[in-house]
Amino acid sequence: MPADGDFQSYCLSPTKPRYRPPPGAVDAHCHVFGPAAKFPFAPERKYTPYDAPKEQLFVLRDFLGFSRNVIVQASCHGTDNAATIDALLAANGSARGIAVVKPTIDDAELRDMNEAGVRGVRFNFLPRLVDAVDPRVHLALARRVAALGWHVVVYFEAPSLAKMVPFLEALPTIAVLDHMSLPDAQKGVEHADFQAYMKVLADHPNLWVKVTGPERISRLGPPYDDFVPLAKTLVERFTDRVLWGTDWPHPNMTTHMPDDGVLVDMIPRIAPGASQQQALLVGNPMRLYWENRF
Ligand code: 0GY
Fold this sequence. Notes:
The protein has about 290 residues and is of the alpha/beta class. It has a single domain, classed as TIM Barrel (Alpha-Beta Barrel). It has helices spanning about 55-65, 80-90, 105-115, 135-145, 160-170, 190-205, 215, 230-235, 260-265, 265-270, 275-290; strands at about 25-30, 70, 95-100, 120-125, 150-155, 175, 205-210, 240-245. Strand 1, helix 1 (about 55-65) and strand 2 form a beta-alpha-beta unit. It starts with about 25 loop residues before the first strand and ends with a helix. The relative contact order is 0.16. The mean pLDDT is about 95. (1E,3Z)-4-hydroxybuta-1,3-diene-1,2,4-tricarboxylic acid binds near residues 31, 75, 178 and 252. (1E,3Z)-4-hydroxybuta-1,3-diene-1,2,4-tricarboxylic acid binds near residues 74, 75, 76 and 124.
């Protein structure tokens, strides 16, 4: 099955970043795709990516100076988590996973996933990626995975914030918000929309946020100058509940394919202080994904 014509493969020769992450750094948002011959994409997928197998992810991790990955199940693999779990097992403890599961999944399968390194489930609210699911179905699942000490990852876009708040409040776990919930970078930090987002984060200590996705959020393109103030503000304000990741292999990008080395070199711009970098890249992801301490 060929990848969709619009989409490019990930950057095959990223720049070596000048920034060196602290020892033990975690890339807390990335994916594995296929290889399709072994792990076919889901029939209900909205896009077909290039293969981006675990071996390439681990080469990139080492090249960028990272030690660990959090592998997030992407919509093109639907609720078949085989490729993600295969990568977790191969990583030998240096990766954790976020799964997407059917509400009918049984407890034994959840326990097996936990054994493999899964630590949460993802709820995707983007109509361009998935068909709508009744939020009550998500809530019932969240209650079940809470019992395993898991959390949930929630992907929605900024204009849905008000609609999402009751759902986020009803969640019995930590909820990590993907890609800063895709704010409008043109509006900037001072705009009422971003201020409202920060108020929701301030009012709900169970909400964490990934300062990821400059390639999706920036209107200016590399080096993503309009993304920086938004991410930097979140890191300053919520230092102990922010996560960073590459988003490799950048599914669904049609405008350009980011250079992962350039993304790593943005880290000191969004987290200028050494203690901020330590929290963002090591302390926070370790607590949430490895130490179960949050
Ligand atoms: C991401 C973002 C995207 C895709 C997916 O599940 C997915 O297919 O998450 C996107 O298109 O914005 O997290 O990689």
